[in-house]
Amino acid sequence: MRTLQYDEIEPLATGAWILGAGGGGSPYDGFLNLRELYRQGTRIDLMAPEELADDDLVAVVSTMGAPLVGQERLADPELSVKPVLALEDYLGRKFRAVMPVEIGGGNGLEPFLVAAGMDIPVVDADAMGRAFPEAQMTSFSIHGLEMFPLALGDIRDNAIIVTRAASWTWMERISRAVCTVLGSTAPTAKAPRTGREVKDCAILHSVTKAIGIGQTVHDARKQHTDPVAAVLEAEGGRLLFTGKITDINRRTTGGFLKGDAKLEGIAGDAGHRFDVAFQNEYLMGWRDDEAVVMVPDIICLMDSESGEAVGTETLRYGQRIGVIALPAPAILSSERGLEIVGPRAFGYDLDYRSAFAFSKQP
Questions:
Q1: CATH code of the domain in which 155 resides
Q2: Which end of the chain is more exposed for a tag (fewer CB within 10 A), N or C?
Q3: Segments of 149-234 assigned E as strands
Q4: What pLDDT, in 10s, does the model give residues 136-151?
């Protein structure tokens, strides 16, 4: 157990945004909220998952919905707590700690807002090691754990608890429909996990990983070196393409932000093109019509100068971008993992091939 330090808040936001693979919602509002809470004297403990007792109860939180809507409806710490309290009331038990369902994007900071409101620690773990668009795309689902009960809240006086679901996919459908009715964004408390389940089935120490990635970017800026290259070296990543955005197509539908973007190569990639498709997160990338990267690899578009991640909702014409791939947690590329988060899970008729298996382009 240690206290998250004030100077770790911004690196956490930066690293979570990179691990978000374009999704998870922008961490900017959560960063501002958390920084203000710290300025007011709040301090939040980060708990190693190994410290959990087997029978401890852990809340698993996120904001569900289309990232674009999050730009219009700002994050609120009190709103984040609402579904967690509803779930405590339903269960008749108190939570020992809270954790993110995904470390990626704004959802990587969500549990800290809950922790501040409930005076409980944040577990250094998540269930994706990145961000994914659908509720069943977690390590808990891959391990076959239960998916209910689940709670959702909104800015009005609504709190909804889904007490049962036939499967993880049905839980996604039901909760997504509720989320859409609530305005295509809603804070959620997923199925609670025991300490034993977290230790056995979660992606461990992912909060620390996000902070480390963010610190790498910030250190590179201070030293006036290439932040994209620094992340690639530190995380064993791969630069896939350097270019500028020439076209964007996106739409919000069914609680998702879907679309694609086109890049024209610059520098060493001049004369080539790159296309990327997304559903909240970046899913597939094609260099000159050849698929060279795909889920579950972490596909990140980074601003070439600042090293900041560029989310699917913040893509803009003319942005100069480095397209990178980072390795995903091994469980995601297991046989069961690929059934849930591989290319075919998103409708692409392709067998998964890691970006690190492709030969390097000249």
A1: 3.40.1610.10
A2: C
A3: 150-153, 159-162, 185-189, 193-194, 203-204
A4: 999 999 999 999 999 9
